[in-house]
Amino acid sequence: MSQLRLIHASDFHLGVKRPGHLRADRFSDFAENMHAIAREAIRRNVDLVIIAGDVFHSPRPSNKALYEFARFLNTLITKGIHVVVVRGNHDASTVITRRGVLDAFEEIASTKTSSAKCFHYMPRIGSRIIYTNSGSRIRVVSLPYIKPVAKAGEDIVEAIEETKRQALEAVAREAEKGGDEDFKILVAHVTLAGASLGSERIFASHMLEPRFELDELSKMGFDYIALGHVHKWQKWQLAGGIYACYSGSIERVDFSEADEEKGFIFIEGTEGGFKPRFLKLDVRPMVRKKMSLRDKGPLYVNSLLSSLKGLTGALVKLIVEVDEESRTRFEASRVVEVARRLGVFDIYIDVIVRERSILASIQSRLYKSVIEAFVDYIKAQRLRPDFEKRVIETGLKLLEEYLRG
User: Fold this and answer.
1) Both ends of the chain: CA-CA distance in Å?
2) 223 with 184: CB under 8 angstroms?
3) What is the predicted pLDDT for the residue at 251?
4) How distant, in Å, are the alpha carbons of 39, 220, 363 from that of 215?
């Protein structure tokens, strides 16, 4: 009976910028977790490591990011472990015909060196047969990030649907090839309808792109569906016991992910099915604190500082609400100084000034006017009804979070 051991990870985001206005460099947080995955791959004697998109945070990564990823690859491929990477929206140009840095790694892998042949970059929809050290034959089908492009005069919603239709047809054709492989795996950097996006930048990064249905992908005969793009780990069991999983990002990218666990998925597969298991990585603690100094005496600032104890090594976002009187007593520089003395990794302070007497009425009028203006604007765009509903619901959620602090 054929057996397979693999690791599924995604969204390394090497080189991501600091959240907010933090000064600390977090590059090592992401790089260390990437190398931790390589160590686990060797320890668990896996055949294959899948990276479902977004190795880098930018299509023009720094020399440091390139070097660390090259080290990661070398650690794996010299042990005969295959590495598959699909194209994400961050780590390659939005123009599919342009070459990126991962294409350069792929070019090296086209040499006759046996270890180099273990790297497989898949920037387009396609498939490859991989022969593992354990003797298994795996057909890997790729569904990289695809950005819809509306032609002149074409509705963006129609462009999104057409992009999705063409992608599904292409993936189905690749899935039907061969037939003599032991396992068939789909690796996709996409947004699934029904996936939990948490508090990510839903409107900006996930709204104007295709949303794929699990039913559309599960009927193509895959043994496992490895997903990337959404940073929150989640799992679905489909008909026939097939699993589809988002491994999530390997570190907390910003404060919207402060409460999320991060890690990767270890999978043991046989002809009887795949068993995915989420394994946690050590991540940088992220803490959000919200305090009001309105109507508070000077001693309250001291209690604020005391609350930073026990946050050694953490990234802290502190939202401080003040009025004109308490504003003069609040010294952000003092808070930063104390935080660093207490071992806080870095702190971002957002000071919100509110007037005492007219705050409620202003906030109410502002909330109402902005909400009404947003809804009126979206309705004036004459979008398809179901898409208009999605845009309004998502926009209202984000506006409500912002306006209410």
Assistant:
1) 57
2) yes
3) 96
4) 35, 9, 44
Please report, rounded to a whole number, the percentage of residues in the chain having pLDDT higher than 90: 45
Q: How far is CA 405 from CA 55, 127, 301, in A?
A: 33, 47, 20
Query: What are the structural domains of the chain?
Result: 3-280 (3.60.21.10), 286-353 (no CATH), 359-403 (no CATH)
Residue closest to 119 by CA, chosen among 68, 50, 174: 50
Sheet holding 234-237, edge to edge: 126-131, 137-143, 183-189, 224-228, 243-246, 234-237
pTM for this entry: 0.82
pLDDT at 397: 76
* Residue 200: band (very low, low, confident or very high) from pLDDT cuts 50, 70, 90: very low
Take residue 254 and report the two structure tokens written for it.
């910003």
Would you give the DSSP letter of residue 155? -
Mean pLDDT across 378-400:
77
Q: For the residues 137-149, what does the mean pLDDT come to?
A: 90
The single-letter code of the amino acid at 51 is: I
Cβ neighbours, 10 Å, residue 339: 20
DSSP string, 311-336: -TT-EEEEEEEE-HHHHTT--HHHHH
> Which DSSP symbol is given to 258?
T
Tell me the two tokens of residue 355.
Answer: 């007037």
Cα(9)–Cα(159) distance, integer angstroms: 30
**8 to each of 154, 227, 398, how far by Cα in Å?**
37, 9, 31
Q: What is the DSSP string of 73-121?
A: HHHHHTTT-EEEEE--SSSS-SSTTS--HHHHHHHHHTSS-TTGGGEEE
